[in-house]
Amino acid sequence: FRLALIQLHVSADKSDNLQRACGLVREASAKGAKVVALPECFNSPYGTQYFKEYAEKIPGESTQMLSEVAKECSIYLVGGRSIPEEDDGKLYNTCTVFGPDGAILAKHRKVHLFDINVPGKIQFKESETLSPGNSFSVFDTPYCKVGLGICYDIRFAEMAQIYGQKGCQLLIYPGAFNLTTGPAHWELLQRGRAVDNQVYVATVSPARDEKASYVAWGHSTVVNPWGEVIAKAGAEEAVIYTDIDLKKLAEIRQQIPILSQKRRDLYGIEMKK
Questions:
Q1: What was the pLDDT predicted at 103?
Q2: I need a labelling partner for 265 at 20 to 30 A (CA). Which of 2, 111, 216, 238 fits?
Q3: Which residues are CB-contacts of 213 (< 8 A; sequence separation ≥ 6)?
Q4: Cβ neighbours of residue 91 under 8 Å, at least 6 residues apart?
Q5: Does the keyword Amino-acid biosynthesis apply (predicted)?
Q6: Active site residue 86
Q7: DSSP string for residues in 63-103
Q8: Does the global pTM surpass 0.85?
Q9: How far does the chain reach from its first CA to its final CA, in angstroms?
Q10: CB–CB of 5/175 below 8 Å?
Q11: Which of the residues 73, 95, 151, 168 is marked catalytic?
Q12: CB 139 within 8 A of CB 106
């Protein structure tokens, strides 16, 4: 099946972001994409100072538009971090997924909050405004089962392993790495998660905006189970496409059968809730 990743240029105008995102979703569908993914924080600038201002409940304006365009195009739509979600007085970094009938299939709240301090380069603390999610998120398509993470979640190998145990063959991470962590780890982490679990891994970034308070790395990418980069955007706004070949995935798992060779008598990863 064809996967499309939309690397959107995000502005401070929520309405414009939503309209352009939906337009690019329609474009991707017209080119044969069956699963389409938007970047982290696609309806607002990324930054703790913006989260409360742009927050919505689910359902709300942004998710309603995603539902409608998913139904119109009859696709599976991964809504990036469609919105900072407000629920019961708390804010979450939330990714929603909609099916071809417009129904919501999954709602993933970012599990691992981005609290880092690289002296002289970048300091950021999502926990100043956001609360963490507490669950794994998987959705089914006629093609394969898909696991969801958001940005910083990709650094935690255990999460990807749980998704592999649950039968996922594609992992999608809307993310917004920056100019420090992006060149160092963006592709490396994707290739590691793909090879370790013999799955396809897709990451969807906003386009780079040098004038923003937080400058995203861009370079939305798809990696196959062999660890090869099979599609990659530059820094500018773009839509990239790739065909997910589940036959190739099966062949790789047969050739190097690590999933059946794990020494479960010696170690294991378990999901607690």
A1: 97
A2: 111
A3: 45, 47, 49
A4: 51, 52, 55, 84, 85, 129, 130, 131
A5: no
A6: no
A7: HHHHHHHHHHHT-EEE-TT-EEEEETTEEEEEEEEE-TTS-
A8: yes
A9: 31
A10: no
A11: 151
A12: yes
Q: What confidence tier does 183 reach under pLDDT thresholds 50, 70, 90? A: very high
153-170 mean pLDDT: 97
How far is it, in rounded angstroms, from Cα 14 to Cα 62? Answer: 9
- Based on the residue annotation, tell me whether 128 is a catalytic residue of this protein: no
Query: Of 14, 34, 40, 107, which is the active-site residue?
Result: 40
Q: Specify the fold of 2-253.
A: Nitrilase/N-carbamoyl-D-aminoacid amidohydrolase (3.60.110)
Nearest to 62 by CA among 26, 14, 101: 14
Least confident segment among 72-86, 136-150, 206-220: 72-86
Of 34, 107, 110, 232, the catalytic one is 110
User: Residue 116: pLDDT band by 50, 70, 90 thresholds?
Assistant: confident
Q: How far is CA 163 from the centre of its chain?
A: 14
40 is catalytic: yes
Question: Quick one: pLDDT at residue 83?
Answer: 63
Helix (H/G/I), strand (E/B), else coil: 124 = strand
